[in-house]
Amino acid sequence: MIKAHKIRLNPTPGQAGYFAKATGTARFVWNWALAEWNRQYEAGEHPTALKLKKQFNEIRREQFPWSWEVTKNASDQPFLDLGKAFTAFFEGKARRPRFKSKKRSKPSFYLANDQFELGDHRLWVPKLGWVNMAENLRLKGKVIGARITKTADWWFVSIQVEIPNAIPVKRPAAVGIDAGVNRLATLSTGEGYENQAFLKTALKKGAASQQAAASQETGIC
Questions:
Q1: Crossing angle of helices 49-63/13-42, nearest 10°?
Q2: Average pLDDT value for residue range 13-26
Q3: Does residue 221 carry a pLDDT above 50?
Q4: Closest CA to 20 of 77, 64, 69
């Protein structure tokens, strides 16, 4: 299973500026990809996330050179996110993807597991360096990705970790019990347990009978 641990970041003003630039890049690429997807779809073409990414990279260096100033994930991941969003839409599981607004949309950008490192209360981000974290990652498992977001004036990193599923504990099978007179119980497995009270009574009666027989034999002799 995959779990996420959300940790507050304490970036310097310069680092916060980098985060703002990365989230702005991710939002721009999403909107560019969505506009191009809609244009191609209406023209009867069949756009895909990979096709749009290739198309963007062909003009990126010339038209959007500022996109290289932050981690490549800020411009790569939006295509994958848009592809998943359209898949969910066509399957009737979500609404049609919409354009993102700087005021209304939550600032965020993704980091693949090879695009960041974790240290003692710190996070390393490409083209930025180490950023202070309020706490260390508590989850144990394979780190598969992270997403940096902003809520109000605070920056956070949500780290996704793949955790092995817990091995279910095998419990003993249920056993039916049939209470009886001669036996205390007979299990559905065929095992029987003697009724000790009944056995004690029978032994007492047997002992009394033996004593009576012995007395009679003594009297006869």
A1: 120
A2: 98
A3: no
A4: 69
Instruction: With a cut of 50, say whether residue 220 has pLDDT above it.
Output: no
Which pLDDT score is estimated for 177?
53
The DSSP call for residue 45 is: -
User: Do 29 and 79 form a contact (C-beta atoms < 8 A)?
Assistant: yes
The residues spanned by each domain of the chain are: 2-162, 177-220
Residue 182: predicted pLDDT: 55
DSSP alpha helices (H): ranges in the chain?
13-42, 49-63, 73-90, 196-220
The pair of structure tokens assigned to 139 is 């989850």
SS3 annotation, 46-109: CCCHHHHHHHHHHHHHHHCHHHHHCCCHHHHHHHHHHHHHHHHHHCCCCCCCCCCCCCCCCCEE
Chain centroid offset of residue 162 CA: 7
Phi/psi at 123 (5° precision): -130, 130
Q: Are the C-beta atoms of 18 and 150 separated by less than 8 Å?
A: no
State pLDDT tens for residues 177-195: 555 555 555 555 556 555 5
